[in-house]
Amino acid sequence: MNVLDKIVAEKRKEVAAQKALFSIDQLTKMPDFDRSGISTAQRLKSSVLPGIISEFKRQSPSKGVINDRVDVMKVAKGYCEAGASAISILTDEPFFGGTIEDLQRARPHVTCPILRKDFIIDEYQIYKTKAIGADLMLLIAAILTKEEITHFTKVAHDLGLEVLLEIHNEEEFRQGYISEVDILGVNNRDLKRFKTTIQNSIDLSEVLPKEQLKISESGISTTKDMAELIAVGYKGFLIGEQFMKHDDPAAELKKFMTEELV
Ligand SMILES: O=C(O)c1ccccc1NCC(=O)[C@H](O)[C@H](O)COP(=O)(O)O
């Protein structure tokens, strides 16, 4: 069993427990359910500066604890003020130490779109994503069929959520890609070996549709990395650890935003 299999097995139990507590009907009555979403895709397309989706990530299966000393409200607000195109908040607890409450606590303090970073395997979670105040949700091709990706994307769009579809390799692209997704993300982390290289995004860029809005995810640690990725067609970057390993993650983002891209 690889780490994704373990996460998905745990997620199935979590979703079953949540369904027993709150019905979809109850989720649709939560205050944020009717909030108008903010478009990350539009912000990435129109940004003249590098489009950075800055992640709040306390821990991860590959790195263990990264930073458990900072407050989500302060970091999310700081990221937004420093120029992030969107904020990514991990809401998975067992593997990433995140919570639904993290996203709900950040929401009133930011005007940036928020990505709910979790492992969506059931339509119920899409309603939950909307109810807690997110604007964008992640779908991971490695754990979904094409039918699920198509259906979940439609449900998300009907609720006013945008979709970031994540692939890791060409096979996942061929099997899971649909042009209806708002953003296509290439993850540089090989989850079987936990090896991370931006060369993965560079290599895959050759087979991805030119007209599709694309971001590169994981293992981006310098503005030089971003410059190389921009050169092959990426409009945005999902960056977690590089910011979160510092006491003031937003100050690190600010450095990225102000450094010249070479
Ligand atoms: O980060 C992990 O160890 C991990 C393990 C299993 C599934 C997903 C995982 N990471 C999620 C991500 O995609 C990253 O948090 C995100 O792309 C940011 O990456 P980084 O900048 O390297 O923190």
UniProtKB/TrEMBL annotation:
The protein's enzyme class: lyase
HAMAP family reported for this sequence: IGPS_B
Keyword presence, RNA-binding: no
Catalytic function, reaction form: 1-(2-carboxyphenylamino)-1-deoxy-D-ribulose 5-phosphate + H(+) = (1S,2R)-1-C-(indol-3-yl)glycerol 3-phosphate + CO2 + H2O
This enzyme's EC code(s): 4.1.1.48
InterPro entries per record: Aldolase_TIM, Indole-3-glycerol_P_synth, Indole-3-glycerol_P_synth_dom, RibuloseP-bd_barrel
Family, similarity comment: Belongs to the TrpC family.
Domain of life from the UniProt record: Bacteria
UniProt keyword list: Amino-acid biosynthesis, Aromatic amino acid biosynthesis, Decarboxylase, Lyase, Tryptophan biosynthesis
Organism per entry: Reichenbachiella agariperforans
MF (Gene Ontology): indole-3-glycerol-phosphate synthase activity; phosphoribosylanthranilate isomerase activity
Span of domain Indole-3-glycerol phosphate synthase: 4-255
A Gene Ontology biological process term: L-tryptophan biosynthetic process
Keyword hit for Cytoplasm: no
Pathway: Amino-acid biosynthesis; L-tryptophan biosynthesis; L-tryptophan from chorismate: step 4/5
Protein name: Indole-3-glycerol phosphate synthase
